Amino acid sequence: MNANLHGKVAGRTWLRLIGIVLLALSWSGAAHAAGYPERPVTLIVPGPPGGSGDITARLVAKELAGAWGQPVLVENRPGAGGIVGAQALMRAPADGYTLMMGNTGVNAINYSLYPKLPYMAADIAGIADVLVFPNVLVVKADSPVRDVADLKRLAAAQRGRLTFSSSGIGQTTHLSGELFKLRTGIDALHVPYKGANLGLAAVMSGEVAFMFDNLPSAEAQLRAGTVRALAVTGAERVPGLPQVPTMAQAGVDDFVVTGWFGLVARAGTPQPAIDAVHRAVADILARKEFAQRLRQLGGRPGVLAPAAFDAFMRNEREQWGRAVKASGATAE
């Protein structure tokens, strides 16, 4: 066999081998999509039990477990503004069996708030947004503060001594307070807590004067009457709190803040696995009774496909980056 003929034969052999490998990979992806999940799935919550992210994650996990016939294990990894949870996701294999309930802080605000992070936006793959909601400005139930105007007057009287809590540095509960200071000109000290439940408890005990909490996590205390709502941060009033004004209606202009929770995975997770999770979540969110439960929490169900959710998170990073810069907030 001459050299040219040998080269052609060798070339065709390599092409066949490449074709076989590509076909095997496509079969593997199809099999993964058909059989996923074949074992328990872990859902990381980058916050403590009892917070709105935890509530949302457990609602979704229960429904996914029922749909898949496989356990979905919720694992709380609070700390450092959600960074601890994100690190746990980064350490797990990119195989679709470890997911995270992402949020505005971890997947948008942190990139501008922290000078250096142990993860990048490119490390995260969006799957589906789950819940979009406003924050609510609350004070202690027996506080003399009855509305936002009262709070501004109290801040003026206690200049430099007024405090507000949050669920942690970099969360919307923190940035809402910073934006409130910026829009109203008040002086208040931020006191971060390790989770919304602790921040809210600080309001109820009188340790701090006010808090902008995620509406889903504040809902139980609002119903119990232990805190009083002064305003919501959405563009419209919340059906479940029709008597509570928006920030604009309360006299604070240019103040619309919404938070969100959504499922994410490590970048590099097989697309069939991402698509399988998205289909399951979309089916759950489309159920009337489940959507109603999310509305009872003060939010609305998500609607975005993986690519659209990635684009949404990219836009959120840009918008919150501008807000962080304008507020002067830092992670220090």
From TrEMBL:
Keywords: Plasmid, Signal. The keyword Signal applies. The keyword Signal applies. CDD domains: PBP2_Bug_TTT. It holds the Pfam family TctC. Residues 1-33 form the signal peptide. It comes from the Bacteria. Belongs to the UPF0065 (bug) family. PANTHER family: BLR1237 PROTEIN, TRICARBOXYLATE-BINDING PROTEIN. This is Putative NagM-like protein. The gene is nagM.
